[in-house]
Amino acid sequence: MFDGQPRLGPTVAIPLSAGGETLGVLISGDMILPRISTNVSVYEQEPEADSLQRFLDSIDKFLPLPEHTLVLPSHGRPFTGLHERIAQLHAHHDERLAEVVAACREKPLSAFDALPVLFQRQLDLHQTTFAMGEAVAHLNRLWHAGTLARTRGADGVWRFSPR
């Protein structure tokens, strides 16, 4: 039985009830996936965007939903444990950010230079396109946070180093 109005947006949360107990269902799309992190990228329309922070802030908006909410992702199997998964995604990105900062201490990095820091496997051309957007998102997050400074080289490439 449907108990209320669905909340629409990039995801849909529908409160349902069965036998007097409210069952939450979240159609999470790509926002919350069970095993991988969604691609969080910066695109040419907003080259200075803080996309990673926007993503993390967005998934935190699901925290008021019950932990036992059934999550229906666009990839992978349905799952429960929404709060745990949100915490895992935060931890994943915190780890990647720390790795990028450590690499920037060794030498200033461009987004291309950050690829092997963020991705320890060989990438094909298609994967590299997505990975570049993610690398920029991580570098921009650290730049917006004031952790890294960025400097445009004579070659026109932005490189990031600790402040």
Short summary of the structure?
The protein has 163 residues and is of the alpha+beta class. The protein has helices spanning 51-60, 82-106, 111-118, 125-144; strands at residues 12-18, 21-29, 70-73, 148-152, 158-162.
Question: How would you portray this structure in words?
Answer:
This protein is an alpha+beta fold and 163 residues long. The chain has one domain: Arc Repressor Mutant, subunit A. It has four helices and five strands. The strands form two sheets. The chain has a three-stranded mixed beta sheet with strand order 1-2-3, with no helix packed on it. Helix 1 links the parallel strand 2 and strand 3. Helix 1 packs antiparallel against helix 2 (82-106), helix 2 packs across helix 4 and helix 3 (111-118) crosses helix 4. It starts with 11 loop residues before the first strand and ends with a strand.
Main sheet makeup: 3 strands, mixed
Give the overall average pLDDT.
89
CATH fold-level topology: Arc Repressor Mutant, subunit A
The total of helices stands at 4
CATH homology superfamily: Winged helix-like DNA-binding domain superfamily/Winged helix DNA-binding domain
Helix percent band = 25-40%
Strand content: 15-25%
Distance between the termini: 55 Å
